Amino acid sequence: MLHCNPMTAPGATRMLDYDFMRTAFLAAFLVAIVCGPVGWFLVLRGQTFASHALSHVGFAGATGALLVGVSPLAGLSTGALVAGILMGFAGDRVAGRDVMIGLVLSVTMGAGALFLHFLTQSASAATALLFGDILGISKGMLGWLALLSVGCLLALGIMARPLLFASLQPELAEAKGVPMRLLDVLFLALVALATAECAQITGVLLVFTLMVAPAATVLRLGVAPLAGLMLSALLALCEAWGGLVLSWQTDYPTSFWIAALGGIGFVAAGLFSRFVMRQTT
Amino acid sequence: MILPALEVDHVTLARGGQVVLQDITFAIPKGSFVVVLGANGAGKTTLFRGLLGLEPSHTGTLRVNGIPVHRGSPAIGYMPQMRKLVGGQLSGWSMVAAARRGQKWGLPWCGRAGRAAVKAALEAVDAVDLARKPVGTLSGGQRQRLLLAQTLLDDPSLLLLDEPLASLDPARMRETALRIHTLAQTRGMTVLMSAHDINPLLGLMDHVLYLARGKALLGTVDDVITTQALTALYGAPVDVVRAGGRVFVVAEGGGAALQPHDCTGGHTHA
Known about the structure:
The complex is a heterodimer. Chain A is mainly alpha-helical.
């Protein structure tokens, strides 16, 4: 988190001289402010595996889109969205069953492999989709990301309150008139879109790094819900930008650095809360 | 005539396609403290869900304060059975605050009125200090106090408490029962509380609602917990034994018909 502000990093002016770097920082901002808070609910509800599965369904969607000549982001979003909504409707019959999710995950990854087989430029496309290609994000893509982010944050702002209630105490929320099934579906649809966005930066295999790691870190610290949602967004942003800066300086992949920062943050939060606990008792 | 707090009129309730309570009728006067007894699967939780408007009645009507039941009624404070904890890292305050008007759309923002309401509810159960700690570090009894605080948020006139004494040790059971009783008396609330063991509640309750074989029997302890009344309800010989100021309901063959056997933690009952 030393690298929260790219302006303080050595060589920052040179780094931001490049158009693709400015685009990358903007894209990371748009993605992180959605992934943090959505991930907070994902971790709270214990549905992180579902998000992982959605990203894999999205992979099949993206490769399929490439095959028919459509933007992979559109394919990824559509694939994940359809899967998320279906998962929400199926409810406990599917969402809580790791065998079912694992099966969906492997079948869709297999389909993605098949689509790649038919593609000529398969190797580079596969790497970009699997591990992310933040430096290759175009201006047009940036527009789409902005649209998705605004939509996701609006949706989250509307449903955050009943979603929190339903997540913490489902029986009571149901009795108080919270539309449980509707919220399940809406939330998984939101997760699908956030996953699709996140995959642009981290790739489908590393969606966890921005969706789960910052949120899990903040939850570990026991921060109150509204502050926790905002802090998750902030931490996700720090890790994404930190990853970009470190990647610039070391020439290692951005995804690696974001993953590494996420892991370090999580462990540090654990040590910190244990230390505080010892001080207070 | 004073309107009863609760009227159940020829009601049939099912759970998972199976009829659990068949054509039951009773009325509970305002301010009553009623203990709902019955074996696992006798329909205690199903009755509560019916009163909350979550299980539609196949026949008859359920009324609370004269109004047919509907989902989300602020007149009812509900405490579900203790279950797996979600978000144990969050403070007790956050958990209670999430329940205040949690059904409204928008951000989980409390506001001054919200904070005052949460504080008042926590003060009523003496849990202001407890609420600062993460919920995951609290004992079962302490968590129960937070759940009880939540039931008070909408200032309800009827409390439905599903097994609030389950998984507490005997001393805590009596303490919790007394707390609920005092709270109900000072606020003039009607209480329906399910339990497995009648003994921690002796001397506190006005009525017993005994559920068995799809039927319901309402009355005072002396009317309902008798060998004749329970034998008729179960349709099988049941003995009521009073010893050392305690009451035991024993079925023929020595098995306890109303057993406290899973008070220590099983939550499988319907």
